[in-house]
Amino acid sequence: MRTRELARLIGTLGKLPRDQRKAVVAELAALESCASSIDVIETGMPGRPDCPRCASRQIIKHGHCGDLQRFLCRHCNRTFNALTGTPLARLHLRGKWIGQAEALRDGLTLHQVSERLHVAVSTAFRWRHRFLALPQTVQTQALIGIAEADEAYFLSSCKGQRHELGRASRKRGGKAKKPGVSPEQVPVLIARDRIGNTANFVLASVTAQEIRRTLRPILPADTVLCTDGGTALAAAARYLGVEHHPINLSAGIHVKGAWHVQNVNAYGSRLKNWMIRFKGVATKYLANYLGWFRALDRSPEFSPDPAQLLALAIRV
Ligand SMILES: [Zn+2]
C-alpha cells in the first residue's frame, strides 16, 4: 500500500464510531496473532525439508496454503507444510494458537479457554490434548549423580466416560474413600536428580518389577538413588544394582548428610498443587498433564513464553 493510501486509511479510522474501532482493533490483533503463530510454526523448519511421507529430498516450493508455505514432493507427488505429521495438523484457527498456549501456561479450565478465545468448549478440549501430545513424550534420557524417586497418587477418573461407569460419578476432584494404594488411586513414579532432570510415569502397579522396568532406561549404574525406603522402591533399587539410600521419613528422619528426598517431594507438591485447578483429570490423559507440567517446571519462574510452548507442541 502506498504511503498516501495508508494515510487515507488511517484518516478513515479516526471517523469510525467507537464500537467499529474496537472491531478493527480486534481484527488487527487476530491478524498479528496469526502472523506470530505462522512465525513459530515455520521457524526451525529447513528451507528445503525432506518429505515427511517418503523422506525424499526432491522437494520444491509449491505456493501457500492458509499463510503456510506449501511444498511438493517430486517423488510421491504429495504436498505438505510445516504442520504435516505434527499433532497440530489440520487444526483450524491458527490465529488463536498463541492464545491457546498462553491459556495452557496459565492453567485455565476449558470453560475459561472457551470464553477467552471465543471457541467452543469441545474445540478447547481438542486443542488442549493436541498441544499436550508431544510434551508428554519428552522425558529426561538419564538421571545424573544423586537421584531421588518417590510415588505420588492421583484419583482415578473416567471423566467424560460417565456412561461406562458402574458406579455413581464422584464429585469433581473429590477424595478417595480409602487412603494409600487402592483401585481409586493412580500411581505415578517421579524421579528427579539434583540438577533438575525429571522423569515421571504413570505406573500400571506399585510393584518392584514395574518400578524397575520404568527406572532402568533412565538410571545409569553409577546413579545414587534416594527414596523414602518404601518396599517396592527399595526392592527395585536392589534389582537395578544402584547404590540406594532409604530415608525413613515415618521415623522423623528427613536428611542423612547428602541423602534426602526433598527435591522429589517438593516437585510432587508443586505438581499436585498445579493439578488442583483441573478439578480431577481423566486417567487416560494423566500422562499428558504430567508432560505439560514437566515443560512448565523446566522454565524459570514457571512462566514460559507462549511462543515457546506452541513450538513445543509442534516439534520436540
Ligand atoms: Zn514424498
Topology:
Elements: H1 3-15, H2 18-42, E1 59-65, E2 68-73, E3 79-80, H3 97-105, H4 110-117, H5 121-132, E4 146-155, E5 185-193, E6 198-202, H6 208-215, E7 224-227, H7 231-240, E8 243-246, E9 255-256, E10 259-260, H8 262-276, H9 286-298, H10 306-314
Parallel strand pairs: 4-7, 7-8
Antiparallel strand pairs: 1-2, 2-3, 4-5, 5-6, 9-10
This protein binds zinc ion.
In short:
39% of the residues lie in helices and 16% in strands.
Ions and ligands: zinc ion
Class from secondary-structure proportions: alpha+beta
Strand order of the largest sheet: 6-5-4-7-8
Q: Characterize the main sheet.
A: 5 strands, mixed
Indicate the radius of gyration in whole angstroms. 24 Å
Through-space gap between termini: 39 Å
- On the 0 to 100 scale, the average pLDDT is 87
Q: Helicity, in percent?
A: 25-40%
Shape: elongated
Oligomer: single chain
Determine and state the CATH class of the domain at 142-298.
Alpha Beta
Strand content: 15-25%
CATH architecture assignment of the domain at 142-298: 2-Layer Sandwich
For the secondary structure, the number of strands is 10
Low-pLDDT residue intervals, each spanning 5 or more residues: none
The helix count comes to 10
CATH topology of the domain at 142-298: Nucleotidyltransferase, domain 5
Name the CATH superfamily classification of the domain at 142-298: Ribonuclease H-like superfamily/Ribonuclease H
Could you characterize the architecture of this molecule?
By secondary structure, the chain is an alpha+beta fold. It has a domain at about 140-300: Nucleotidyltransferase, domain 5, CATH 3.30.420.10. It is about 40% helix and about 15% strand. A hairpin with a 5-residue loop joins strand 2 (about 70-75) and strand 3. It is elongated, with a radius of gyration of 24 Å. The protein starts with a helix and ends with a helix. The chain binds zinc ion. Zinc ion binds next to loops.
